[in-house]
Amino acid sequence: MMLHQDGSMHVWLAGQPALDLIVTLDDATSAIYSAFLIEEEETASTFRALTEVFGSHGLPMSLYTDRGAHYFYTPTAGGEVDRSRPTQVGRPLERLGVEHIAAYSPQARGRSERVFQTLQDRLVKELALKEIDTVEAANLFLRDVYIPEHNARFAVAAAQEGTAFVAIPGTHAIFYGPRCLGRYDKKGVLNEERKAA
């Protein structure tokens, strides 16, 4: 099972500046497992989304993302990712056994791009109709109303019954514990460990 995660900067709320909508969806079914508005896509928003999905459903086999700096270290702009230097996102995914796949073109992220086209049309209109104008209210609406309705309308049935997620205890600690959000040197050693040695 593969998840896609991406962000889309857009004017989602009338009269507000552009915000990032972070979406994590199932590659096979197009079901959205997590979606929320945030000022800017970054490591913390990635952890938030993955914590929501992993905590509710379990671990996927893989996560497909763009090559943003919070996902991968890329020595040369537009070049290959350097997997020997994992980011704060890459380290816990590696520890959890979740393969992290880097997209090398917008066309490769076609599924998430099509979802964002739909959301930029439908979600903006829904938020305006409901007169939702704050991030907090929009995120509640997304979670409680919009995502369930969206999935009921657009998600397709999986080819096989059952779940491909693997249950995991302690997801919050993996993403928010000191080993993940600590400051690491270029060799991947936690600065506090280096000081203690």
- Give the low-pLDDT segments: 181-191, 193-197
C-alpha geometry: globular
The number of helical elements comes to: 7
- Give the percentage of residues in beta strands: 15-25%
- Termini separation comes to 41 Å
Taking all Cα atoms into account, the compactness measure Rg is: 18 Å
Structural class: alpha/beta
Strand order in the sheet with the most strands: 3-2-1-4-5
Element pattern in H and E: EEEHEHEHHHHH
Arithmetic mean of pLDDT: 84
Helical proportion, percent range:
25-40%
- The tally of strands reads 5
| Major beta-sheet overview | 5 strands, mixed
Structure description:
The protein is an alpha/beta fold and 197 residues long. It has 7 helices and 5 strands. It has helices spanning 43-57, 90-96, 110-129, 135-154, 171-176, 178-181, 191-196, and strands at residues 2-10, 19-26, 32-38, 62-65, 99-102. Strands 3-2-1-4-5 form a 5-stranded mixed sheet, with helices on both faces. β2 and β3 form a beta hairpin. It is globular. The protein starts with a strand and ends with a helix. Residues 181-191 and 193-197 have low confidence and may be disordered.
